[in-house]
Structures are given as C-alpha cells and as structure tokens.
Amino acid sequence: MLEDLLNSWEETYKKGQLTLWIFLSLKDGSKYVNEIKTFIEINSDGTISCEEQSLYRSLRKFNHVDVVKYGLKEGNRGPDRKYYSLTSLGETLLETFIQRNIKLFFSSPIKKLME
Predict the structure, then answer these.
(1) With a threshold of 0.85, does the pTM exceed it?
(2) Directed axis angle between helix 2-27 and helix 88-97, to 10°?
(3) 75 pLDDT exceeds 80?
C-alpha cells in the first residue's frame, strides 16, 4: 500500500515539476529539445523523464505566452533545429517563482523538518 501511495504522489509531483525543469534547463542558454530532455534526466538524477512530444507541447505553449523564444540553427544533419531560450519575461518569471516557491525549502525550520 505504501508503495502505491508513494508512486501516485510522485507521479503527480513530477508532472507538476516539468515547467520548472524546462525553465532551469534554459536558464544558462539555448537548447534544442533533446538537450532539454537530457538536462532534465541528468539533473533530476533520473527521477524525472519526459517524452519529446510533452516538451514540444510545453515549449509551444511557453512560446505563445512569450516566456520562451526559439531560433533556428544548423543541425548536425538534416533540417535546421529549433533552439529554445528564455525571454526576459521568462527569466523574470523563473526568478520570481524560485523566490516565492523554492527558496522556502532552504529556510532552517523547513530544512530541519526534512532531515
């Protein structure tokens, strides 16, 4: 029963984290979808994985609301690739989100509770 509850909680948690991970992957520069996917998998220690279609869907939505932009660059072979990056609004959105929702986990009382 514990395992089922934990798996259900983690599945919900991970779905909610995808936006944060996408934005974090773009914070240090532009990437194409496969690089974003790899960044997320490596930096989440393999706990979060995503399908490329989910990434494309999210990136289209973020582009539509002007928090992510893209430019075309030559790929290794085949057609040009879309390289995605944060707009200035996207950078501000990420920083504000981190201040309001992530930094609280670094406070002493919360850190103590998680030990």
Answers:
(1) yes
(2) 140
(3) no
Confidence at residue 11, expressed as pLDDT on a 0 to 100 scale = 84
- The pLDDT-based confidence of 67 (bands split at 50, 70, 90) is very high
Q: How far is CA 8 from the centre of its chain?
A: 20
From the list 89, 92, 87, 80, the residue with the least C-alpha distance to 30 is 87
Residue 39 CA: distances (Å) to CA of 21, 35, 45, 67 = 8, 6, 10, 19
- Distances 71 to 17, 87, 108 between C-alpha atoms, Å: 25, 12, 42
* The two structure tokens encoding residue 75: 């790929």
Strand partners, 35: none
